[in-house]
């Protein structure tokens, strides 16, 4: 039993969807999964296991930011032998080519965090997603009529309210599509433990134009993202 999850052995599936918000984890489990059981309420970071089209799947909240996600991802990999984690969350568009409600599949995650520089003794490690998961998610997204999907780099920021937003400009010039707060740590930890990871994010706001979705619009817009993530994980053998 892990420190922060507290689940019994066997309660967590080999495939886990990971939103930041624990209440979104509950919404995903209750909306998309059958035969759902809650395996953790430790610190209010809810976790659930159920089935989706015959595949056993868990949904685990991670909290906001890389340090919080790193706690839960590490325990999923080391204490429960989870093989695949797909982050499902929101992101902010950094380029006018990406619009509200679009889906961003993160092939790799740049970061302003020091976590990887500490881990790699000052070297710049390039955290990337599992290629099979990327392809499966892209194919699932393209099969959905009306869903606009982008595949490319994201920026995993340590600050939600960044004091110097202009610093993202060089990232955009080098192809970064959107900003979020967790993917870089997830990809690094998956690589360290020989597991598979992917981040699939819905654009909830636009850093360039300032427009954003309401809370109601976010919930409606997140359903396609969850369905894409489930389809990708299932095709990947989860």
TrEMBL record:
Keyword flag Transmembrane: no
Which transformation does this protein catalyse, written as a reaction?
A: uridine + phosphate = alpha-D-ribose 1-phosphate + uracil
**What superkingdom does the record give?**
Bacteria
InterPro entries tied to this protein: DeoD-type, Nucleoside_phosphorylase_CS, Nucleoside_phosphorylase_d, Nucleoside_phosphorylase_sf
Q: Which Pfam families match?
A: PNP_UDP_1
Name one cellular component (GO) term: cytosol
One of the protein's GO biological processes: purine nucleoside catabolic process
The record's Gene3D superfamilies line, in alphabetical order, gives:
Nucleoside phosphorylase domain
One annotated GO molecular function is:
uridine phosphorylase activity
Nucleoside phosphorylase domain sequence ranges: 16-219
Q: Which residues cross the membrane?
A: none
Its Enzyme Commission number(s) read: 2.4.2.3
Give the signal peptide, or none.
none
Task: Answer yes or no on keyword Glycosyltransferase.
Answer: yes
Tell me which UniProt keywords the record has, alphabetically. Glycosyltransferase, Transferase
Family from the record: Belongs to the PNP/UDP phosphorylase family.
Known NCBIfam families for this protein? Answer: deoD, PRK05819.1
Name-wise, this protein is: Uridine phosphorylase
Q: Which organism's genome codes for this protein?
A: Marmoricola endophyticus
List the taxonomic lineage: Bacteria, Bacillati, Actinomycetota, Actinomycetes, Propionibacteriales
């Amino acid at each position: 039993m892990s420190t922060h999850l507290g689940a019994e052995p066997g309660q967590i599936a080999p495939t886990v969807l990971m939103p930041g918000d624990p209440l979104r984890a509950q919404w995903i489990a209750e909306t998309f999964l059958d035969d759902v059981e809650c395996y953790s309420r430790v610190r209010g970071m809810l976790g659930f296991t159920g089935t989706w089209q015959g595949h056993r799947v868990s949904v685990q909240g991670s909290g906001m930011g890389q340090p919080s996600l790193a706690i839960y991802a590490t325990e999923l990999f080391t204490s429960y032998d989870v093989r695949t984690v797909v982050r499902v969350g929101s992101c902010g568009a950094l380029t006018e080519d990406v619009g509200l409600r679009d889906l961003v599949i993160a092939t790799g995650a740049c970061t302003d965090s020091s976590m990887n520089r500490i881990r790699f003794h000052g070297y710049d490690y390039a955290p990337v997603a599992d290629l099979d998961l990327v392809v499966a998610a892209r194919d699932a997204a393209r099969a959905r009529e009306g869903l606009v999907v982008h595949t490319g780099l994201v920026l995993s920021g340590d600050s939600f309210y960044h004091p110097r937003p202009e610093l993202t400009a060089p990232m955009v010039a080098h192809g970064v599509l959107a900003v979020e707060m967790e993917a870089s740590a997830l990809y690094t930890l998956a690589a360290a433990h020989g597991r598979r990871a992917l981040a699939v994010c819905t654009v909830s706001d636009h850093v360039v134009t300032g427009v954003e979705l309401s809370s109601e619009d976010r919930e409606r817009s997140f359903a396609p993202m969850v369905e894409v993530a489930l389809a990708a994980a299932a095709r990947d053998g989860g």
